[in-house]
Amino acid sequence: QDDGPDPVVPINYSVEFTEAMDYFRAVLQADERSERALDLTEKVIALNAANYTVWGFRRDCIDALGKDWAEELMWVTELAPDNPKNYQIWHHRRCCLKKLGGHPDELAFLDDFLTDEELEDAKNYHAWAHRQWVVKEFGLWEGELAFVERMLEMDIRNNSAYNQRMFVIKHTTDMGRPVREREVDWVLQKIAQVPNNDSSWAYLRGVVAGQGL
Length: 213
Fold this sequence. Notes:
Layout: H1 15-30, H2 35-47, H3 52-65, H4 69-79, H5 87-100, H6 106-115, H7 125-138, H8 144-154, H9 159-172, H10 177-193, H11 198-208
Helix pairs in contact: 1-2, 2-3, 3-5, 4-5, 5-7, 6-7, 7-9, 8-9, 9-11, 10-11
Pfam family, one: PPTA
Cofactor: Mg(2+)
GO molecular function: CAAX-protein geranylgeranyltransferase activity; protein farnesyltransferase activity
């Protein structure tokens, strides 16, 4: 790994990482979309999952080789628990779903991911943002409010769940007065349970803002 002749903070790369990156730069420059190149991307990603160039080239290889995007989705699923906040992994997952036109188990995967007791990451921004994209992209609105309710039963302070409810309401209703009044009633019940919950108060402010309710 060459950081230039005069790096500000020299990084002591491992021999394995340096060799892998040298090989990768060579196949990238040659635009070699081969089985060997695809295998190399997996090795580089294992060493540095944040390298967006490697992810992009991996997708190019999969397309060029006619690989199964469903298998690729399974592969990236295996990486998620160890890299829950890695943007590139979530973006790659989205790319897989676009190629597949959706997947029947995607919401179930997200359900399990957000409720995994070992991960303890029920507010994971990347997972919730991905869930919003999936729901909107493939029209999977039905049952989403029930999912939010389950998440709030687990943790009534989960601001991500409140945000998801607002997202669903805004995209599935006209946000007219009857809807807002219903949402006020709903969130007041949450406030009654935990009066000092910033998340529920923020939701209330979002519902009534500028509406004179």
